[in-house]
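forwarding from the other thread:

> can someone predict this with nicotinamide-adenine-dinucleotide?

sure thing
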Amino acid sequence: MLIGVIKETKEFEHRVALSPDAVKLLKKKEFEVIIESGAGQSSYFSDQDYLDAGAKVGSPSEVFQADLLLKVNLFTPEEIAQMKDKSACISFMYAYQHPQIIEALNAKSITSISMDAVPRISRAQKMDALSSQANLAGYKAVLLGANHLGKIFPLMMTASGTITPAKVLIFGAGVAGLQAIATAKRLGAIVECTDVRPETKEQVESLGGRFLTVEGAEGVKVEGGYAKEVSAEYLEKQQQLIRDKIKDADLVITTALVMGKKSPILVTEEMVKSMKTGSVIVDMAVESGGNCALSEKNKTVVKHGVTLVGESNLPSLLPVNASNLYATNITTLLLHLANPLGLNLDMEEEITKGVVITHEGQLVHPFTKSILQ
Ligand code: NAD
C-alpha cells in the first residue's frame, strides 16, 4: 500500500501529517511512503530527513497516485479532483460542517477517515489528535496572552516594591483549558477556571487552580465525554459569575466548545467594557464562532482597551511538536485500519465505526449523517 503526504495549503499552516520518525515506523511495517517535496519544511523536516527515513520524495502528481493520502487539514476540491477513484484519505475533517467535500469524496468512492472523530476512549488515546493539538494550543495561548500583557505573572518582592501576581481566568477545563491552567500556574499566576462539567473541579484543583462553581450546575449532559449545550437558566447564572470575576482578570483564556455546534458566547461586549485597560483575552474558540463577542478570527485587535487575540491555529505555531504528535496519532490510526495490502475495515468495531465518514460511495458515519441528512 502506498501512503502519500501532500504539502498543507491552508494559510498559516506549518504542520505536516508525517514526521521522518513516523515514516520509519511505516517502512518497518512494510508500507511504502511518498512525501511531496518541501512538505515538511515549515516543521523543519527536510526532504533528506524523509529520504533517510526510507520515503520517496516526489512531485504533487506523483504523490496523488498514492492509495492512502494523509493531511492535517481537510482535503480541498482541487486535491480531491487529483485523487484516484476508490483511494482513501485521512485528515481532520469536521465532516458535518463540509457537505460539499463529503459529496466530492463520495462521487469518487473515496474512503475518508476523520481524525476529529476518533472516539475519546482509553484504547484510542494514542490516535487522539484533538487532544495532542489542544494540549499544545493551551500552552501557547498562555504564552501569547503573557506577551500581550504589560505585566508579569508571578509575585515578585523587590527593593523597588512588590509586584502582585497576575490573575488568569479560564473558561473550559478540557484538554486545552487544563494545559492553560498548568502553564499559567508554572509562570506564577493566580488561576481560576469554570466549566459546565462539575467533574472537572477536581482536575482544576489538582493543577493548583480555583474552580468557580455555577450554582445549578447539575443536569449538564455529557455525551462521549463532550459537554452538550447548557440550559438558558444555567447560562444566565454563569453570566452573572463571569460578570463578577472578569473585572479583576488580567488574562482571560476561553476554550469552551460544544461538539457540532457554534461555541457559546460567554464574554459579551458589556463584559469586555468592564475589564481593566490593558487586560487580554485569548479566544481559543474563535474558529467555531468564538466565546467572546468581539474577537476576530486570525486577528489581534484592541477594543475598549482590551487586547483580543483571535489566533485560530495555535498548534501550528509550535509545528515541530505539533507535527510529531499528529504523526504519531495518524500513524497509530492508520495501523489500526490498514495493512500493507490495503484497508482492512471492520465497520462494527468502535474506533473504525467512529472515524470512517465515507466508504464505497456511501456516507456511513452516523453522527455526520444525522446532521447532513
Ligand atoms: P472540548 O474542546 O470539546 O471543550 C472544552 C471544554 O469546554 C470542555 O471541558 C467543555 O465541558 C467546556 N465547555 C463547553 N461549554 C461550556 C460553557 N458554556 N462554559 C464553560 N465551559 C464549557 O473538550 P476536550 O478538551 O476536547 O475534551 C472533551 C472531553 O473528552 C472531556 O470530557 C475530556 O476529559 C474527554 N477526553 C477523553 C479522552 C480519553 O478518554 N481518551 C481524551 C481526551 C479528552
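The chain has a mean pLDDT of 95. thats all i got for now
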